[in-house]
Amino acid sequence: MPQSSTAPQRPALLTKSRFKRALECPAKLFYAEQSSYANQSLEDDFLAELAKGGHQVGALAKCYFPGGEDLAGISPDEALVRTQELLQRDQVTIFEAAIQHGHLLVRVDILVKDAGRYQLIEVKAKSCDPLDLHFMKKRGEGIVKDWEPYLCDVAFQKVVLEKALNTRNIDSYLMLANKRARAATDGLNSKFRVAGDHSVIVSPELSKEDLAVELLAKIDASEPLDYIRTKGEYHGHTFEGYIATAADALQRNECLRGCIGAHCKKCEFRCTLEDESNGLQSGFRECWKEAMGWQDQDFEDPLVLEIANFRKADKLLAQGKAKMIDLEETDISPAPGDKPGMSNSERQWLQVSKIQKGDATPEIDIDGLRAEMQGWTYPLHFIDFETITAALPFTSGRRPYEGVAFQFSHHVVHKDGSVVHAHQFLDTEPGHFPSFDFIRALKQALEGDSGTIFRYAAHENSFLNLIHSQLRDSDLPQEEVKELCAFIESISHSKDDSELTWCGPRDMVDLLELVKRYAYYPQTRGSNSIKHVLPAVLNHSAFLQEKYGQPNYGATGGIPSFNFQNWQWIQVEHGQVRDPYKLLPKMFEDVPENIDELLSEGDSLANGGAALTAYARIQFTEMSDYEREQLRSALLKYCELDTLAMVMIYESWVN
C-alpha cells in the first residue's frame, strides 16, 4: 500500500488583512496563523460586512466602472497571472487585481490603468461627508485615529504596487459612502442580493436611473499616505520598515512581541473554558506571562483591564499595578457626580473593593430608587427598538447608512403589578422603508394614557430624533408629519446638535442610567449591558425566581404574550439561573452565541447584534420563504425578551 505524502506548506504571504492584524498588535500576526491558539474573533467577515452592507457597497462601486475585468471569483494564483496579462493593455480597469512583490500580496478593489498612470481605489463600507472630511489632525499633527486603519490599508497596497510595477505614478483613493447623496430610485438595495457564498448578485433590472446619482465618493488619500510613509511610526519602525519586519516574521513563523496595555482588553486570542478543555492555548496569557513573569494562577485575580469604563489602566500598569487586588482607593479617586446615586468613579471603586473583599452581594440604593419611583406614573411602558443603518437606501431620496427602524416590543406594567406584552411591530418586507409605519404603530401603542415610558440606553431617543428629521424631510401630508413629530417630541428630547430643541412631558426614562446610579451586581463584572444585568438580577431576586419559575408566561390566566405559550423563564442549572437569552432558539447555526458582545458598543448594543444580523439576512441574502418566516419568529421572541428583561429589572427593585 503506497504511503501518503503531503507537499510542504508554502510560507504565508503578508496580505493586507494580515498586515492590518499586525498593526493592531505584532503578536496577533503569529497567533492568527496557529491553529493551536484560541481565537474569539469573527473570522467569517459575513457579520461585520453584511451588517454594514460592505458586500453591497463593493458591488455598487464596480457598477461605476463599466467594462471592468472582475477577478473576484478566481484563486490568488490565477488572479496573479490574469492581472499581469490585463496590465499589458494601455487602458484597463481590474476588480480584485492580484499584485505580488516578494512575500507581499495584495488584492486591489479597483485598479485603473490609463497609459502609464494608475489609480488604486480601496472601497470601504464607511460613510463620510466629502465636504467636511479631514484625514489629518489640525496643523498636520498626525492622522485622525478613526481613519488611520483604512489609510494604512491603502498605504500598504501602494507600497506593494510601486515595487511590483516599478512606478511612482500611482494615485490612491478611498471610495466611501457619501452621506450627502440621495438615492435616485426606489428599491436600490434589493438589486444587490448577497448569495450563500457571500458573493453579490446584481439584478439584471439595475438601470441607468438607479446609478444616476453616485452614492459613493472617491476621496484622494495622497496627503495622509505621504505622512504615514514619511513620518508615521509603527511599533518602533517606519511604515515600510514594519512591513518588512512583519513579512520576515511571517516567513520565519516567529512571534513579534508588542507592549501589553489597555488595548489588550479587546484581545481575541483568549481561551474560554471550552477552549481550554479542547487543549487550545491563550495568546493573551502568553503575552502577559512573558511581560509580567506570571504563572497561570496569576490570572485567577481580576485585572485592572476589567474595571468598567476605566481609562487609567495604562497608568496603573506603568506603576506595576496590574490586578485589582493591588489597588488602593486613591488609584481610582472616587468622586461624587452631579446626579443622585453613584458616579462612574464611585462605581469603579465599588467594583474593585468588592473584588478585594470577596463580596458577591449586589449593592442596591433602595432610597435612591424609591425617590425616582415617586415621579413615575402608571401604567408603566417598557419599549425596545431594533434598527439598522443600511448601506444602500431602500427608497428614493434616502442617503447611504440612513437609519431604519424595523421593530419594537412593548410591555406594560399596571399599578397592581400585572404585566402584559401589549404591542409589537416588525416589518421585514425586502426593499420597504418601514420607519414611518413603525412610528405610526408606536404612537398608537403609547398614546392611550400618560404613563411613564422606559428605554434602555440612548438608542431609542436617538432614533426618534432621526425619524423626526426623516418625517420633516418626507413628502407625507403635512398634517400627518406635524402629528407624528408632535408625538415624538412628547416622549423624547432633542439631541444637543439638533436644529430644533424640545424635551417632552413623557420624555423616556433611561433604565440603564438607573442601573448605573443605583444598582451594582458583581456577577456582571462591571458591565451594565442588559444582557449581563438580567442574569444577575434573576439570580439575586427570590421574587422573580418564584414568579417566573413556573410555565405561566403566555399561559391562560398567566402573563399575556404574543410569542410564547406556557413558557418558564427561570431554569436553574448548577445552582445558577440560566441566562434567559440562551433559552431561546438560535437564530443562526453559523453565527457565534456571543454575537451581541462582538457587535456591542460600551454598555449597550447599538442595535442588538442578533436582530441586526437577522434583518440584514432577510433583506440582502437569498433565502426561502420558510427560512424568512423562521427568522421573523425568532426576531419577535428576542425583542419581546428585551422589554421583558426591563420589566424584570423593575420588578426586582420594587419587590
Automatic annotation (TrEMBL):
<protein>
    <submittedName>
        <fullName>DUF2779 domain-containing protein</fullName>
    </submittedName>
</protein>
<dbReference type="InterPro" id="IPR021301">
    <property type="entry name" value="DUF2779"/>
</dbReference>
<dbReference type="Pfam" id="PF11074">
    <property type="entry name" value="DUF2779"/>
</dbReference>
<feature type="domain" description="DUF2779">
    <location>
        <begin position="381"/>
        <end position="529"/>
    </location>
</feature>
